[in-house]
Amino acid sequence: MLARFFQRSRSEHVLEIAPSGAILKTNTKTTILQAALDQAVAFPHNCRVGGCGSCKCKLLSGRVREMTDKSYVLSTDELKQGYILACQSVPLTDVTVEVDIAARSAHPVIHTSGVITALDKMTHDILRVQCRLKDPARYTAGQFAELYVSNSDTGTGGRQSRNYSFAGAPGIDSPVGTVEFFIRHVPGGAFTDWLFKSAKLGDEIEGHGPYGDFWLRPSSAPIVAIAGGSGLAPVIAMLEQARAERITRDVTLFFGARSQRDLYCLSRIEKLANQWMARFQFVPVLSDEPENSGWTGLRGFIPQHLVRMVGPRIGEHHAYLCGPPPMIDACRMVLSESGIASSNTHFDKFLDRSHVATA
Ligand SMILES: Cc1cc2nc3c(=O)[nH]c(=O)nc-3n(C[C@H](O)[C@H](O)[C@H](O)COP(=O)(O)OP(=O)(O)OC[C@H]3O[C@@H](n4cnc5c(N)ncnc54)[C@H](O)[C@@H]3O)c2cc1C
Ligand code: FES
């Protein structure tokens, strides 16, 4: 029946997504994830480079070509059951995959555009980008949007996009009309080169979202939050939302940066700490601060200080981490050795295309 779905050439195929029943056109050059997103299906995903496993789905029928080795990301059980990574698989035939989209998206995904209303330099390489949206959006603090890279037609009908986490709390009731992001310049990067070198107030950015399952789970457990660089965005959004909801959980917030010039949002964090309804400990850690700078805070890397700063009851905490992949991997090891279950550790790795080779 699917074969008769549309008239097509040999490189065109039909992609069926169960159990939603979505039936889409695709081709041998487009990943399953890209085909779904291009046709407004909110397929769960995160890194897009085969590194996080968020887009895993079960291949029910058909054949795919896989661009990277998925055995690093999927469990032995998942591999046996025929799971694939949608962001790394292109169809060779008509395919049917299974993924429970409804169960994994808290808010409807919308495609919209926004006008840049602020471009504030937070550090020498991080910008706060504020956009006024054409259509108001709902998201959960911690989630991200996909913003299109301008003039980025890939030649297969798709456009390139990049993920950016919302840096502000979405509020309690109504959808938001303005969103903000903290974006770090990646030299040579398509989106951030444009943003840092050419973007100006009034420019329009298109995007879609929200996506991601990095959000504060309901619990009374104390929180250890760990942010590196622009990874502060979803962490501060999450904590500001928790404060708005008058949550009373102790928090230790670590902020890793190279030197004092890389620290930002300090007054916003101070305000958060002052208004927090339980204990709030803020721990900036600098890895490359000159010895004679007068910095009296902690030096080195966050994992070295985690256990001492959180204290002997670290194992009772729930952990939320966001930032560069090496920082997250090193911290997760310490958290796991300290007794925090992996089910209580949530993280968002800011993977980019340079991680494709290592994913
Ligand atoms: C869930 C999620 C949320 C994120 N949130 C944020 C956020 O809030 N703030 C933020 O700053 N970042 C965030 N990121 C990272 C962001 O999505 C981009 O990856 C980053 O900004 C780089 O985009 P770019 O277009 O400038 O660089 P790209 O064009 O993607 O290039 C990135 C790097 O890869 C190199 N490169 C390009 N092509 C290749 C290739 N084919 N092979 C190998 N290397 C290559 C480039 O030279 C560059 O060094 C997030 C990532 C994820 C996964
Ligand atoms: S989105 Fe496919 S592995 Fe991360």
TrEMBL record:
<dbReference type="InterPro" id="IPR008333">
    <property type="entry name" value="Cbr1-like_FAD-bd_dom"/>
</dbReference>
<dbReference type="InterPro" id="IPR050415">
    <property type="entry name" value="MRET"/>
</dbReference>
<dbReference type="Pfam" id="PF00111">
    <property type="entry name" value="Fer2"/>
</dbReference>
<dbReference type="InterPro" id="IPR036010">
    <property type="entry name" value="2Fe-2S_ferredoxin-like_sf"/>
</dbReference>
<dbReference type="InterPro" id="IPR006058">
    <property type="entry name" value="2Fe2S_fd_BS"/>
</dbReference>
<dbReference type="InterPro" id="IPR017938">
    <property type="entry name" value="Riboflavin_synthase-like_b-brl"/>
</dbReference>
<dbReference type="Pfam" id="PF00970">
    <property type="entry name" value="FAD_binding_6"/>
</dbReference>
<dbReference type="GO" id="GO:0016491">
    <property type="term" value="F:oxidoreductase activity"/>
</dbReference>
<feature type="domain" description="FAD-binding FR-type">
    <location>
        <begin position="108"/>
        <end position="217"/>
    </location>
</feature>
<dbReference type="Pfam" id="PF00175">
    <property type="entry name" value="NAD_binding_1"/>
</dbReference>
<feature type="domain" description="2Fe-2S ferredoxin-type">
    <location>
        <begin position="13"/>
        <end position="103"/>
    </location>
</feature>
<dbReference type="InterPro" id="IPR039261">
    <property type="entry name" value="FNR_nucleotide-bd"/>
</dbReference>
<protein>
    <submittedName>
        <fullName>NAD(P)H-flavin reductase</fullName>
    </submittedName>
</protein>
<dbReference type="InterPro" id="IPR001433">
    <property type="entry name" value="OxRdtase_FAD/NAD-bd"/>
</dbReference>
<dbReference type="InterPro" id="IPR017927">
    <property type="entry name" value="FAD-bd_FR_type"/>
</dbReference>
<dbReference type="GO" id="GO:0051537">
    <property type="term" value="F:2 iron, 2 sulfur cluster binding"/>
</dbReference>
<dbReference type="InterPro" id="IPR012675">
    <property type="entry name" value="Beta-grasp_dom_sf"/>
</dbReference>
<dbReference type="InterPro" id="IPR001041">
    <property type="entry name" value="2Fe-2S_ferredoxin-type"/>
</dbReference>
